[in-house]
Amino acid sequence: MLKENDPAREINDLTLPQNDKLEELQEKGIKLYGGKYVRTHLARQLIEDYPALEGQKVNVAGRIMAIRGHGKASFANLQDGSGKIQIYLRLKDVGSESYQIFNRLDVGDIIGAEGNLFKTRSGEVTVAVENFTLLAKSLRTLPEKWHGLRDIELRYRQRYLDLLVNPQVREVFVSRSKIIQAMRKFLEQRGFLEVETPMMHLIPGGANARPFTTHHNALDLDLYLRIAPELYLKRLIIGGLEKIYEINRNFRNEGISTKHNPEFTMLELYQAYADYHDMLKLTEELIYAVAQEVPGTPVVVFEDVTLNLAPPYKKISMLEAVKQYTGIDFSGLGETVKARAAAKTLNITVEKDDSWGVILNKVFEEKVEANLIQPTFILDYPIEISPLAKKKEDDPRLTYRFELFISGREIANAFSELNDPLEQRMRFLKQVEKRQAGDEEAHMMDEDFVTALEYGMPPTGGLGIGIDRLIMIMTNSASIRDVILFPLLRPKE
């Protein structure tokens, strides 16, 4: 019997579903939570290499996902990180006491098993168990594969269960890892150097977004979680690192939706002596190379629509796109008053201080974006919403900037980077004015960055790719939370 102060008794007092068997197993001297177990093979290896392994003794370990008893013999499915393998126990092979112990195990328990490899009459590769070891007792019942874990929010909250019972979810995250590996391989083959820049910033910059704040106690200093690594990566370009990239997290204090998570993963890269045309070509080549390697084809299905990720992609300016989908030519509406009147005819709300470029972008977002299903580059964004991009020589209202859209989602953003320190200071000051007027997403003044520019930054092309959104498309995942292992959720009441 368990002693009064035994921790196992306290666990039993929780009345968890499996706890009725704990005392019985302990009375038989069974250790409920074992140590290291040496495996000779993974489940997938046993199945794939069966002709060479037939009849050999093997050691496997994993979680019991199903048990089927037949009197003096039992079958079970054992799942490890590579897949599932069937195991077979007979009373005469393992002995009466071990067979009784096995019959007290549950779906969810983790065991190690040793035995010879064979095929059943139905042709299933199976381990004929001679010895087994309990490695971890599950105290809770696993949800049934299709009926027990349908609650989407529960799947996100308890991702470990989602991964256990839904193999397709596990495959999404395996694909995620391979996609990121393929990105690194592509960039390294082209001479890019991977770097790491700070996650905590004195001044948040590189994007129009609200930051999260934190505090460093020792320095008594308020800091911000980074919204983008851009300004630090450009400092490295100034320092002579001419082709660099970073894959890491950004944090933006914004809403949560199927397209947005406050914590997300970005690829951001910079190349000296390049411009946004070079970035455009690089974007096409990178996405195509990744699609060839991970899904294995540039033709993918996302939300029941077939997408072709093979270049070349469609290219159209923002002005041309707005004209195509609304019939209004904003290039001829040079005055803000006229642009505001045009937006009103489209039932688009604009603020009293919105400029021509801001209005143009609002029209684009509301009337054009959703129509951009096949990969499409939108070129030449207004200068007001592009404070870090070089302005176009033939139209100073616009910048050398593009965004890539796939299935109505922004996937990439790129500039010919602004490298004129005098103009950059002026742009920052205009952002400060917007911030003082109440725009919490406007840039702050970053004097240190301007100082860095004053030492001279070569002409540079910069590119950012939203990795989570690209993975959504390549794995046919409807929500960004489906491709983030632990998305942010509101706490349970």
For the largest beta sheet, what order do the strands appear in spatially?
Answer: 6-10-11-18-17-16-15-14
CATH structural fold name of the largest domain: BirA Bifunctional Protein, domain 2
Could you list the spans in which at least 5 consecutive residues all have pLDDT below 50? Answer: 7-15
What is the annotated CATH architecture of the largest domain?
2-Layer Sandwich
Helix content: 25-40%
Shape: elongated
Task: List the SSEs and their pairings.
Elements: H1 7-12, H2 22-27, H3 43-48, H4 50-53, E1 57-70, E2 73-80, E3 83-90, H5 91-94, H6 96-103, E4 110-119, E5 125-136, H7 152-157, H8 159-165, H9 167-189, E6 193-194, E7 200-201, E8 213-216, E9 221-225, H10 230-238, E10 243-251, E11 263-272, H11 276-293, E12 299-302, E13 305-308, E14 314-317, H12 318-326, H13 336-345, H14 356-367, E15 376-379, E16 401-406, E17 409-416, H15 421-436, H16 447-454, E18 460-466, H17 467-475
Parallel strand pairs: 3-5, 6-10, 14-15
Antiparallel strand pairs: 1-2, 1-4, 2-3, 4-5, 7-9, 8-9, 10-11, 11-18, 12-13, 15-16, 16-17, 17-18
Helix pairs in contact: 8-9, 9-11, 9-17, 12-14, 13-14, 15-16
Short descriptors:
elongated, single chain, about 500 residues, about 35% helix, BirA Bifunctional Protein, domain 2, 18 strands, five-stranded mixed barrel, OB fold (Dihydrolipoamide Acetyltransferase, E2P), alpha+beta
Short description, anyone?
The protein has 493 residues and is α+β, with helices and mostly antiparallel strands.
Describe this structure in words.
With 493 residues, the chain is of the alpha+beta class. The chain folds into two domains: 7-136, Beta Barrel (OB fold (Dihydrolipoamide Acetyltransferase, E2P)), CATH 2.40.50.140; 165-313 and 374-482, Bira Bifunctional Protein, Domain 2 (BirA Bifunctional Protein, domain 2, 2-Layer Sandwich), CATH 3.30.930.10. It is built from 17 helices and 18 strands. It has helices spanning 7-12, 22-27, 43-48, 50-53, 91-94, 96-103, 152-157, 159-165, 167-189, 230-238, 276-293, 318-326, 336-345, 356-367, 421-436, 447-454, 467-475; strands at residues 57-70, 73-80, 83-90, 110-119, 125-136, 193-194, 200-201, 213-216, 221-225, 243-251, 263-272, 299-302, 305-308, 314-317, 376-379, 401-406, 409-416, 460-466. The strands form four sheets. An eight-stranded mixed sheet has the order 6-10-11-18-17-16-15-14, sandwiched between helices. It has a five-stranded mixed barrel with strand order 1-2-3-5-4. Helix 9 packs across helix 11, helix 13 (336-345) packs parallel to helix 14 and helix 15 (421-436) runs antiparallel to helix 16 (447-454). The longest helix has 23 residues, at 167-189.
